[in-house]
């Protein structure tokens, strides 16, 4: 247990500045405190790690931005897909209505031919 100048139990935080990337330290738990207590938990990083970790962090940030962009694209495509599905449903309903109308027209055509043939036969049979 490490206590700061205020007498509080310190928190373990992680530094992400380029000089000490991913290096943990004890800090005063009071936010905006003037205590200023800092003690390193981890030993100093070697120069190579100080270069590698910020590069990896940049790569992670770039990938997260790309991932967020892809998520936005997926959401946009999902909206477009939903719009197309509703339009498809509308067109299918219209197609069904047209099929019903076509069936009625066929029935009228058959009935009119039947009436025509009946009239012709009745005229011939006179
Ligand atoms: Zn403190």
UniProtKB/TrEMBL annotation:
InterPro entries noted in UniProt: Znf_GRF
Organism the protein comes from: Lactuca saligna (Willowleaf lettuce)
Pfam family, one: Zn_ribbon_GRF
GO molecular function: zinc ion binding
TM stretches of this protein: 107-124
Coiled coil region boundaries: 60-101
Family matches, as PROSITE patterns: ZF_GRF (PS51999)
PANTHER family: ZINC ION-BINDING PROTEIN
Keywords of the record: Coiled coil, Membrane, Metal-binding, Transmembrane, Transmembrane helix, Zinc, Zinc-finger
Transmembrane helix as UniProt keyword: yes
Name recorded for this polypeptide: GRF-type domain-containing protein
Residue ranges annotated for the GRF-type domain, each copy included: 4-44
